[in-house]
Amino acid sequence: MTRPEAADMPDDGAPKTPDRLRRRASRLLSQLSARSDRLINEGLAAQADARKWHYAVLASLQDFGPGSQATLSRRTGIYRSDMVGVLNELAERDLVERVPDPDDRRRNIITISPRGRRHLSLLDKVLDDLHDELLAPLSPAERDQFVQLLTLLLDHHARTS
User: Fold this and answer.
1) Which residues pair with 109 in a beta bridge?
2) Residue 94, phi-psi category: left (phi > 0), alpha (psi -120 to 50), beta (remainder)
3) H-type helices in the chain, by residue range?
4) Euclidean distance between CA atoms 100 and 69, whole angstroms
5) How far apart are CA 25 and CA 157, in angstroms?
């Protein structure tokens, strides 16, 4: 039997989660994902007045260059219908620039602005600290291994779906 965590203990000290649930990778990943999302969302909002989608778009533009809304949607996994709102928020803050596509005037090409590059550097620092908090019990080598294993699983399932 695994050692119950504080989150699995009700006020009376007795375990509230059956051991068979605590051994299920799917459940553990789901719970960790929920905690990670909450930590990242709250941390970005409090420390940088940002959302995780802001980071995803800015990182995509910095790493891969300008793109259309559809391209950014594919790169980041943000639904096209939500991308407009994210880009509006970023444009209002002068973090991205939109210009008409010279090949197709119906769409815009989005680029990261100089202010967006500076903001992305700030978000990198905030996320580094939040990830340190999330992964606190793991050594640096364990953190690297954990990320490698998650990447292996995600890549496998992305190929098979």
Assistant:
1) 99
2) left
3) 19-22, 25-48, 52-64, 69-76, 80-92, 114-134, 140-160
4) 12
5) 15
Q: Is 65 left (phi over 0), alpha (psi -120 to 50) or beta?
A: left
How confident is residue 47, by pLDDT bands cut at 50, 70 and 90?
very high
Token pair 């559809």: residue:
70
Tokens coding 53: 């989608």
Entry pTM = 0.83
CB 8 within 8 A of CB 22: yes
Inter-CA distances, 5 with 19, 67, 100, Å? 11, 45, 54
Q: At what angle do helices 114-134 and 25-48 cross, to 10 degrees?
A: 130
